Amino acid sequence: MPLIGDDAPSFRARTTLGVVDFPEDYKGKWVIFFSHPGDFTPVCTTEFIRFATMQQEFRELNAELLGLSVDSNQSHIAWLEAIREKIEYKDLKNIDVMFPVIEDMSLEVARNYGMIHPHSNNTPEELLERFERSGGKLSLQQFSTETIRATFIIDPQAKIRAMLYYPFSNGRNIYEIKRLLQAIQKFDNDHVYTPENWHPGEDVIVPNPSTWVETKERQERVKESDSCKPWFLCMKKDKQE
């Protein structure tokens, strides 16, 4: 399973919008790559509606959305049509999902990204064999090949910058995913840290000094500044674009 700072595993896959080559098709872009447990499920439906309505907001941050589950393309398409034609959620209706959703029936991409539950680390053939040997006594969870609610924020160099995991029962906070993307981009652009629950326009944190000399200089400046109390927590105004 990849970790933060690792290269995002490359892949070529069928999607609802055609074949995707990652990362080649996303050069120069940030990618929000996320998995969902299954089509035609209630929590996933609400997540996709919110992702779809916020797609333009992510694009304004130079980020593209890319979904995945182990369902077929036919299932994806039928589900997305049902969302558009039949679902009304929080006054949102007739929602078109215009980002690609990967068909990963082989589980190859999901396994490479650690998106499968621990009890489902088997091939379909192994799962069938285990089920037959158990006489049907093992739980469904032990045979699950559903992907969990994993989310990866991947930068334009195809490096994994953040990973978020949610259980089957709970939907993601899509606004938090956007906020985290903005915070990571703020670090890259201005080399500043962001405090808890930071939002664009709020004060940012000046990174701590890396040498003893720099530390002493910082301590001296603290005496003349109200923005550093104590020396290891220095804030400054956010530089707006």
Automatic annotation (TrEMBL):
Signal peptide boundaries: none
UniProt domain Thioredoxin: residue ranges: 2-186
GO molecular-function terms, A-Z: thioredoxin peroxidase activity
Residues binding substrate, per UniProt: R149
Gene Ontology CC terms, in alphabetical order: cytosol
Predominant location: cytoplasm
Description of how the protein assembles with itself and partners: Homodecamer. Pentamer of dimers that assemble into a ring structure.
Function: Thiol-specific peroxidase that catalyzes the reduction of hydrogen peroxide and organic hydroperoxides to water and alcohols, respectively. Plays a role in cell protection against oxidative stress by detoxifying peroxides.
Misc: The active site is a conserved redox-active cysteine residue, the peroxidatic cysteine (C(P)), which makes the nucleophilic attack on the peroxide substrate. The peroxide oxidizes the C(P)-SH to cysteine sulfenic acid (C(P)-SOH), which then reacts with another cysteine residue, the resolving cysteine (C(R)), to form a disulfide bridge. The disulfide is subsequently reduced by an appropriate electron donor to complete the catalytic cycle.
Name of the protein in its database record: Peroxiredoxin
Annotated source species: Methanolobus halotolerans
